[in-house]
Amino acid sequence: MTDSADIQLPEDKPLEIAGRVYQSRLLVGTGKYRDLAETGHAIEASGAEIVTVAVRRTNIGQNPDEPNLLDVVSPDSYTILPNTAGCYTAKDAVRTCKLARELLDGHDLVKLEVLGEHKTLYPNMPETLIAAEELIRDGFKVMVYCSDDPLLAMRLEEMGCVAIMPLGAPIGSGLGIQNRYNMRLIIENAQVPVLVDAGVGTASDATIAMELGCDGVLMNTAIAQARDPIRMANAMRLAIESGRESYLAGRMPKKLYASASSPIDGTFF
Amino acid sequence: MQIQLNGETIELPAGSTVAVLIEKLALAGKRLAVEVNEDIVPRSQHPEFILDDGDRVEVVHAIGGG
C-alpha cells in the first residue's frame, strides 16, 4: 500500500476575502449554543477562522462580571464578523454596522443581512442594496447575505461587496441547497468569493455547496443544534475539505447506463 | 435629568458624561459601543461627551449570532 503522506497534491489557492487570506473555508456563527464554553469548543473543532457575532443591547443591571462572548472568541485569534441579523430596514442595518465598527476598534468587515419578514427570514433585496451602497461608501467591507438571484448577485459585486453570500435555504431551516443551478450561475459570474450562507443542515449539504464550486460556507444552526455540536463542528470541517477536494478533482460525468469497472478482456468463461 | 438608556428611563445627575454613565453601570473597561441619539460616540470621546436631558442612549455589545 502506498503511504498517503508520500502523495503530493497540488496546493489549493486559499480563500481570500477583502485582501486577507484564510486557510479554512468554513465560517461559523455563535448563536444557539448551550453556553459559551460549548460555543468556544465547537468553533475550535470547526477550524473556522471567521466567526459571526450579533450586536445587541447590553443588559443593564445584570452581573457585569458575566463572561463575554469576545472573551471566548477573541478578536486576537479570529476574524470577527458582526452581522446585522434582526434588521428589517437598511437604516437599522447601517446603524448596527457602525456600532459594530466602534465595538471592534474600527474593524470594518461586516455581514450585511436585511430581512424581509419573520416567517422565512428571506433577504429583503431592495433594502439590502440600499444598505450595501451606504456601507461601501462609508468604507465598510461588505459580505452580503442575499437571495440566489444571479443578476442581483452580479449587481452586489459591481457595487463593491467583498463576498456574495446567497442563502441555500431559509436561515435555520436545515433544508440544504435548494437551487444548485442558481448557485452555479452565481459562482460562474463572480470574481469575488461566493459563500453559501444559511440553509445547510448536515455535513453532506456543506459538501454539496463546495462541490458546486462555492468558495466557502457560513453556518450556525447546523452545528449549534446538532445533538453533539462539537462533533458536528468537526464533521463540517471535514465535509468542507472533502467538498473542496472533490470540486478540484472534478467529478466523473453522470451516465444513464452502467459501465463495468472490470475489463471484459481476459475473461475465461 | 432623565435619559433613555437602552429603552428604559433612568435618572442621571445633570452634566454627566458618557464615561460617568459607563462607570455607574459598572461597565468600565468592557468591550462595548455607545450611541447617543443614533450617532456613535467614539470611545475616545466618552470622558468629554456630556449627556443632555432626554438623550436616547444605546449601549451595545457582541453576543452569539449567525
UniProtKB/TrEMBL annotation, chain A:
Homotetramer. Forms heterodimers with either ThiH or ThiS. The gene is thiG. It comes from the Bacteria. Catalyzes the rearrangement of 1-deoxy-D-xylulose 5-phosphate (DXP) to produce the thiazole phosphate moiety of thiamine. Sulfur is provided by the thiocarboxylate moiety of the carrier protein ThiS. In vitro, sulfur can be provided by H(2)S. CDD domains: ThiG (cd04728). The active site is at K111 (schiff-base intermediate with dxp). SUPFAM superfamilies: ThiG-like (SSF110399). Belongs to the ThiG family. Its EC number is 2.8.1.10. 1-deoxy-D-xylulose 5-phosphate binds at G172, A198, G199, N220, T221. It holds the Pfam family ThiG. It is found in: Cytoplasm. Pathway: Cofactor biosynthesis; thiamine diphosphate biosynthesis. Residues 16-263 form the Thiazole synthase ThiG domain. InterPro entries: Aldolase_TIM, Thiazole_synthase_ThiG, ThiG. Gene3D superfamilies: Aldolase class I. GO terms for molecular function: thiazole synthase activity. GO terms for cellular component: cytoplasm. GO terms for biological process: thiamine diphosphate biosynthetic process. Keywords: Cytoplasm, Schiff base, Thiamine biosynthesis, Transferase. It catalyses: [ThiS sulfur-carrier protein]-C-terminal-Gly-aminoethanethioate + 2-iminoacetate + 1-deoxy-D-xylulose 5-phosphate = [ThiS sulfur-carrier protein]-C-terminal Gly-Gly + 2-[(2R,5Z)-2-carboxy-4-methylthiazol-5(2H)-ylidene]ethyl phosphate + 2 H2O + H(+). This is Thiazole synthase.
UniProtKB/TrEMBL annotation, chain B:
Gene3D superfamilies: 3.10.20.30. InterPro entries: Beta-grasp_dom_sf, Mopterin_synth/thiamin_S_b, Thi_S, ThiS/MoaD-like. It holds the Pfam family ThiS. It comes from the Bacteria. SUPFAM superfamilies: MoaD/ThiS. PANTHER family: SULFUR CARRIER PROTEIN THIS. This is Sulfur carrier protein. It comes from Marinobacter oulmenensis. The lineage of its organism: Bacteria, Pseudomonadati, Pseudomonadota, Gammaproteobacteria, Pseudomonadales.
